[in-house]
């Protein structure tokens, strides 16, 4: 993040128009994009060039919103989702799959608790819950050889329990796994988990980021500092070629 205040970043972050460009971010209401040649589109599908070809994957408006939140959090990259629950699911499931294990704070949003305890359990992901104020010994005992992630909420919804991000980050990193923090309640205006050791941040933008009870949304932000390659055997989905895409 630059030296500007967080208030300025809230207004200006992620989008800095050039000469004669629109002051406000345009809303692109298009599912698809037009190209003059199939060769150009082929380069996009092969990820040889950056650009847009289907709004389910990328959309300029969404990208600019994600860039603003990313700048506010001090991250490297971000992606919008349809809801906060979608953000948590996608972030978790890209790190942990069938046969893997997650350590999570027990003081989290009920929907996220159910996601980890039940829904992802049906997909083969197990979870051990620990109290946010557990002892170091209790936290250490929660880890298993197949643990791939530690999860918590900065301020729990609705219990308002505060997570000791530094302590949970140290425990995660000691075991070679990332710490993921749902930062919905404080937003980056009040707390920036990356500054305390977190590796991945999620939000339900539906809540304080919207503030008007009008829009559903979520976001995933990557700090860009966790060394996935140093633990490549644990995270093949992030360190080896993806067979599902070419």
Structure notes:
The protein is α/β, with parallel strands linked by helices and 246 residues long. It has 2 domains: 26-58, no CATH class; 59-239, Aspartate Aminotransferase, domain 2, CATH 3.40.640. The protein is built from 9 helices and 7 strands, in the order αααβαβαβαβαβαββα. The protein has a 7-stranded mixed sheet with strand order 1-7-6-5-4-2-3, with helices on both faces. The mean pLDDT is 94.
How are the SSEs ordered, and which strands pair?
Layout: H1 6-12, H2 38-45, H3 60-73, E1 77-81, H4 84-93, E2 101-105, H5 110-119, E3 126-130, H6 136-142, E4 147-153, H7 165-174, E5 179-182, H8 187-190, E6 200-204, E7 218-222, H9 236-239
Parallel strand pairs: 2-3, 2-4, 4-5, 5-6
Antiparallel strand pairs: 1-7, 6-7
Quickly list its features.
globular; 246 residues; 9 helices; alpha/beta; 2 domains; Aspartate Aminotransferase, domain 2; seven-stranded mixed beta sheet; 15% strand
Please sum up the structure shown.
This protein is an alpha/beta fold and 246 residues long. The protein has helices at residues 6-12, 38-45, 60-73, 84-93, 110-119, 136-142, 165-174, 187-190, 236-239; strands at residues 77-81, 101-105, 126-130, 147-153, 179-182, 200-204, 218-222. It folds into two domains: 26-58, no CATH class; 59-239, Aspartate Aminotransferase, domain 2 (3-Layer(aba) Sandwich), CATH 3.40.640.10.
């Amino acid at each position: 993040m630059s030296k500007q205040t967080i208030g300025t970043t809230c207004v200006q972050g992620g989008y800095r128009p050039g000469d004669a460009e629109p002051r406000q971010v345009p809303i692109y209401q298009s599912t698809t994009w037009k190209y003059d040649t199939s060769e150009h589109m082929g380069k996009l599908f092969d990820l040889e060039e950056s650009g847009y070809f289907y709004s389910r994957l990328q959309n300029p408006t969404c990208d600019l919103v994600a860039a603003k939140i990313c700048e506010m959090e001090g991250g490297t990259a971000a992606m919008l989702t349809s809801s906060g629950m979608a953000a948590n699911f996608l972030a978790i499931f890209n790190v942990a799959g069938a046969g893997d294990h997650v350590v999570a704070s027990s003081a989290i949003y009920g929907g996220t608790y159910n996601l980890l305890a039940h829904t992802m359990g049906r997909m083969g992901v197990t979870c051990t819950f620990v109290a946010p104020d557990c002892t170091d010994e209790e936290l250490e005992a929660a880890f298993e050889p197949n643990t791939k992630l530690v999860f918590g909420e900065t301020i729990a919804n609705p219990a308002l329990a505060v997570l000791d991000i530094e302590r949970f980050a140290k425990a995660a990193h000691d075991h070679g796994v990332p710490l993921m923090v749902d930062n919905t309640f404080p937003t980056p205006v009040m707390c920036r988990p990356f500054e305390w050791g977190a590796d991945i941040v999620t939000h339900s933008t539906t809540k304080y980021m919207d503030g008007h009870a009008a829009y559903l949304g979520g976001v995933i932000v990557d700090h860009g500092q966790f060394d996935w390659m140093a633990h490549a055997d644990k995270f093949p989905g992030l360190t080896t070629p993806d067979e599902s895409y070419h």
